[in-house]
């Protein structure tokens, strides 16, 4: 699956990183707790969250997350968008809830991470 596929499935608006729409994604994670993201996420992941905070981008950068999707119609600040763009992270927004967005991606074949990142795949 690509970021473009995620955009279409989630009926999302691209906020930054539109030039990276053909990048692949391997898994998805839905969380507002960045500690859980740190524990479970691997690279080439789509992060779906309702947390509008610069820590989301910093956490995503540390883990090589490909794309952040802000759920529930939330829109990040310009500062967050600029930080994400500088880090090479595509940012989108969807009106779907986090739960629904994760479910839609799963139904379309994108799995979640099953094991803690420290345990391997």
Structure description:
- With 121 residues, the chain is α/β, with parallel strands linked by helices.
- It has a single domain, classed as HprK N-terminal domain-like (Udp-n-acetylmuramoylalanyl-d-glutamate--2,6- Diaminopimelate Ligase, Chain: A, domain 1, 3-Layer(aba) Sandwich).
- It has helices at 3-10, 34-40, 54-62, 78-86, 98-107; strands spanning 13-16, 27-30, 45-49, 67-70, 90-93.
- The protein has a five-stranded mixed sheet, sandwiched between helices.
- The model has no long low-confidence stretch (mean pLDDT 91).
Count of β-strands: 5
- Give the C-alpha Rg: 13 Å
Q: Considering the protein shown, what is the CATH homologous superfamily?
A: HprK N-terminal domain-like
CATH level-1 class: Alpha Beta
What is the subunit arrangement here? single chain
Spatial sequence of strands, sheet with the most strands:
1-5-4-3-2
Task: Summarize this structure as a short list of keywords or feature phrases.
121 residues; alpha/beta; Udp-n-acetylmuramoylalanyl-d-glutamate--2,6- Diaminopimelate Ligase, Chain: A, domain 1; 5 helices; globular
Gist?
The protein is an alpha/beta fold and 121 residues long. It contains five helices and five strands.
SSE layout and pairing:
Elements: H1 3-10, E1 13-16, E2 27-30, H2 34-40, E3 45-49, H3 54-62, E4 67-70, H4 78-86, E5 90-93, H5 98-107
Parallel strand pairs: 2-3, 3-4, 4-5
Antiparallel strand pairs: 1-5
